[in-house]
Every structure is written in C-alpha cells, then in structure tokens.
Amino acid sequence: YRALFPVYGTVKNKLGFERLSWTLFPFYVENEKRGAVTTSTPWPFIRLTRGAAHGWGFWPFYNYIDRPGVSRDTYYLWPLGYDRVKQPADDAPAGTPPRHDFGFLPFYAKSTGPGYVDENFLWPFFGYTDRTVPNRYHETRYFWPFALRGRGDDRVVDRWAPFYTHSVVKGYDKTWYAWPLLREA
User: Fold this and answer.
1) Which candidate, 57, 59, 56, 88, places its Cα nearest to that of 71?
2) How many Cβ atoms sit within 10 Å of the Cβ of residue 65?
3) Beta strands of 34-107 (E only): which ranges?
4) How far apart are CA 94 and CA 111, in angstroms?
5) Of 116, 86, 120, nearest in space to 103 by CA
6) Distance, CA of 164 to CA of 117 (rounded, Å)
7) What whole-number distance in Å separates Cα of residue 67 and Cα of residue 25?
8) For the chain, percent helix, then strand, then coil, each to nearest 5?
C-alpha cells in the first residue's frame, strides 16, 4: 500500500486501526477496526459505520454506535450527554446485568453495573456510591473532594477537609487535623 498524506493513501495496522484510508484529508476518511468500517466525510463531522458495528453521527450534536452483543453508545452535544450500555463479558455468570452509564454533565451522571451504583448531582461534587462486589462499601459525597463519608467492609472514611480527615483502610488508621499540618497514623 502507498500513502501521501493528506492527498491520498492507505495504511494498515497503524494508529490503532486495521486499515486507515483517506482522500484529500479531511474531506474523506475511512477506517476499519474490529470488523467495523467507518466512513467520515468530512472528518470528524459526518460519519457512517457499517459491518460488525453500525451507526451514524453528526459531530458534535449526535453520535450512535451499536456493537451487537458488546455495547451501544449514544452521545449528544458531545462531550456533555452520553448513554452507554456495555454487555457483560462472555465469562461472566449467567444473569449478570450490563454496565450502564448515563449522564448530562455537569448536572447529572449515573453508572450502574454488577454490584455497584454511582450517582452524581452537579458532577462531581454531590452524590453517592453503593458497592457490594468485591467488598461492601457506601460513600456519600457532600462536596467532593472536601466533604464525604464512607463505610464498608474494609474501610471507613470521614473527610471534612482541610479541618479533619479520618480513615481506616485495611487496618491502617490515619487522622489529619488542619491538613497538612498535623497527621496521626
């Protein structure tokens, strides 16, 4: 294969793609990755995907890609809005729910998956995390990273930074007073 960027060319196994072709870049670009072929004209604004995945996009307003049995991604007003569903791995136990990430930043973001829920309001400042796998843990964020409280099987965290922070993580007990002036461990 031959290439003269930006006029015309094809390269293989470069930049994370199996094949990357262009003609008068950025007016026409075609890439192939994991059996999905995406054509962009002009790149990156208008794209059409076919093959192992299918979808279309008009960047930055809307983009949709469906990889059957793997994932489904929808973005709107990129990078503010997103909705992503990722199917569990083939070796996951039967009945394992998919991972689902949804949000419109900075107002709201939520991630759910096997054994956890993470929900944020006025991301990233307020929210909570509930996790049951591999260890149980619940965290409430009042004004992250300054004020939070967490409790779990292997950790305890109380943070009212910079005035007081106390944590016990896997048996290691640490307390800060007027961080970073005084530390007790």
Assistant:
1) 88
2) 19
3) 36-40, 46-51, 54-58, 62-67, 71-76, 81-86, 99-104
4) 21
5) 120
6) 27
7) 27
8) 0, 60, 40
* 53 CB burial (10 A radius; 0-12, 13-18, 19+): buried
Token pair, residue 74, equals 């929808």
Which token pair is 101? 């990430």
Q: What is the pLDDT of residues 96-135, one digit of tens each?
A: 999 999 999 999 999 999 999 999 999 999 999 999 988 9
Give pTM, 2 decimals: 0.83
Residuewise pLDDT in 10s, the chain (185 residues): 789 999 999 999 999 999 999 999 999 999 999 999 999 999 999 999 999 999 999 999 999 999 999 999 999 999 999 999 999 988 888 889 999 999 999 999 999 999 999 999 999 999 999 999 889 999 999 999 999 999 999 999 999 999 999 999 999 999 999 999 999 99
